[in-house]
Amino acid sequence: MPVTERPAVVLLSGGLDSATILSMSVRDGFQPYAISFRYGQRHQAELERARRMAALMNVVQHTVIDFNLGIFGGSALTDDRLAVPKHDSVEAIGNHIPVTYVPARNTIFLSFALSWAEAIGASDIFIGVNALDYSGYPDCRPEYIAAYEQMANLATKSGTDYAKIGLGSPIRIRTPLIAMTKAEIIRIGLDLGVDYSQTLSCYDPIDSELACGHCDACLLRLRGFAQNGIPDPARYAEL
Fold this sequence. Notes:
There is one protein chain. The protein is of the alpha/beta class. The protein has one domain (6-227): 3-Layer(aba) Sandwich (Rossmann fold), CATH 3.40.50. It contains seven helices and five strands; from the N terminus they run E-H-E-H-E-H-E-H-H-E-H-H. The chain has a five-stranded parallel β-sheet, sandwiched between helices. Helix 1 crosses helix 6 (182-191). The longest helix is centred in the middle third of the chain and has 16 residues, at 105-120. The N and C termini lie far apart (42 Å).
């Protein structure tokens, strides 16, 4: 049975996965506080999609945090000198950690979310990481999430207070998509009424409306829709 009137912080990028977890949080009775990040990424068009999804889902509050990981470099998503890899099929992506990995990004994102969660009295943080149909990022794995949750309960006042009276760990990092295929994620989202035409998953969009169709994120998304036997409602430059 879903809980009611319970706040939760939801990481909202404007992509397919985060739109799905936002809808799942509402389904489960949480009051979502959405948090997005302008971190120097080349695909800042995703933030407009995050704004649209937050409005569609009537989130309690949508906060956009500004900082610039581009000053460090090290990723094709934040450094224009590095090209975003493009392929013709999912099979060509490979199993290595790609250059689109942004060093420590999820750790940074979760730290902002944790701070906001504790400030508003929320025990639950939703993040749309996935360990199956993803691009090999180390901060999308279950063991990473488990370690971060343990740290969060050690690092916060609420965690310390609960430990003192033997009530366990109050902070929960919720990852409902972590063991799902992209096709399964899409099916759940469709059942929940997510409007995927309003989302943008592309790492290197042509403009604010057109996805490239060949980066890892586009290929995995397109395959997910194809496996469901339905067209992707997003707009692509070459499709």
